[in-house]
UniProtKB/TrEMBL annotation:
One Pfam family recorded for the sequence: zf-dskA_traR
Domain Zinc finger DksA/TraR C4-type: from-to ranges: 66-100
Signal peptide stretch: none
InterPro entries for the chain: Znf_DskA_TraR
Listed GO MF terms: zinc ion binding
Coiled coil (residue ranges): none
Designated name of the protein: TraR/DksA family transcriptional regulator
ZnF dksA C4-type span: 71-95
Lineage: Bacteria, Pseudomonadati, Planctomycetota, Planctomycetia, Gemmatales
Organism: Thermogemmata fonticola
Keywords: Metal-binding, Zinc, Zinc-finger
Length: 105
């Protein structure tokens, strides 16, 4: 083997010895979620749970008041299928759509 080839081989070998763990892959997010992201996720989940809990408590109040199954906005009966799916929903399907669209006053 000629000396210059040996030299190139040595160069190549050194190159492969670069620490692989620290390699940056631009544009590819391979990191596990950071603590910030995890806290954000936990907060969102917690808010959802609290919202459902609040709706369930409202539903219990409406059962006690005898208005359960009636839309709190327009007073229309909420469909049985809808109540089966979302027992705690305060709105009929029409008002729920408006509420989601931000059109409910
Ligand atoms: Zn309604």
């Amino acid at each position: 083997m000629r000396p210059e080839v040996r030299h190139l081989e040595a160069e190549a070998w050194r190159g492969s010895e670069q620490p692989v763990a620290g390699v940056e892959l631009p544009g590819i997010d391979t990191d596990p979620p950071s603590q910030e992201e995890e806290e954000y996720l936990a907060r969102v989940l917690w808010q959802n749970e609290r919202e459902i809990l609040a709706q369930a408590q409202d539903a219990l109040t409406r059962i006690a008041a005898g208005t359960y199954g009636l839309c709190v906005h327009c007073g229309a009966p909420i469909g049985k299928e809808r109540l089966d799916l979302l027992p705690h929903t305060p709105y009929c399907i029409d008002c729920a759509r408006k509420a989601e669209a931000g059109e409910l006053d």
